[in-house]
Design a protein that fits this description.
alpha/beta; 113 residues
């Protein structure tokens, strides 16, 4: 099992959140706290990097949607970067792939295959 970790960087209104491990009901509150803190300290363009996330559950999806709503209320946005195929499938099944801006490796195209 991959150990959960979260790291944030912020430069003015731009912030990156790098998450690794399982994003579930036990770890999602840490992501929520990070997103709340970033928004409270002025971040308006937040990207959550999911490349290291091996599992996403409904609690985590709720945290991401909550973060998106919070940022949009502050005239900002939240984007997702490099979700793995399993996470992307969950996004597609729930329709969240049409709600979030999703990028891969800095561009809008998923990796081949």
């Amino acid at each position: 099992m991959t150990e959960f970790s979260i790291a944030t960087t912020k430069d003015g209104i731009v912030a990156d959140v790098v998450v690794a491990g399982e994003l579930d009901m036990y770890t999602a509150p840490r992501l929520r706290d990070a997103l709340v803190e970033l928004t409270a300290t002025g971040a308006r363009q937040v990207t959550v990097d999911l490349a290291g996330v091996v599992f996403v559950d409904s609690t985590a999806l709720g945290v991401l949607v909550g973060g998106l709503k919070r940022l949009r209320q502050a005239d900002g946005d939240l984007a997702l970067r490099s979700p793995r195929p399993g996470a992307m499938k969950v996004m597609e099944m729930t329709g969240l792939n049409r709600v979030f801006t999703i990028t891969y490796d800095g561009n809008g195209s998923p990796p081949p295959g």
